[in-house]
Amino acid sequence: MGILSGVVDDRKTNVPADFDSPAGTTMEKYEAEKAIRSLSTTWFRTLTDREMDHPSFRSFKDWLRQHGYGHNLDFHSAGGADHDVEVWFNEELRHRWRW
User: Fold this and answer.
1) 12-41 tens-digit pLDDT
2) Contact 41, 93 (CB under 8 A)
3) What number of CA atoms fall less than 13 Å from residue 89's CA on the CB side?
4) How far apart (Å, rounded) are the C-alpha atoms in residues 23 and 64?
5) Residue 75 backbone dihedrals phi, psi, to 5 degrees
6) Per-domain residue ranges for the chain?
């Protein structure tokens, strides 16, 4: 038995995310990840050419809240939800940035 036996993989990427969960409910981490990855690319397409050069994580979070997707920032995570969201945002947009 390995040292990781019994560890639950919380990524579950095959489970569809509900991007419009009712306010006041906490999303599961795997739901939030799927939503954030999709919404980050949707948000990126709304930017000007200049903004695309350096996508702002803070602006992305503001956009989520303004468009009714702020609940995707509320999930339980050992490392902190804000950290996880920023990692997913960066991973998703990395290849789209203009260097």
Assistant:
1) 333 334 455 555 557 899 999 999 999 999
2) yes
3) 20
4) 13
5) -150, 160
6) 29-96
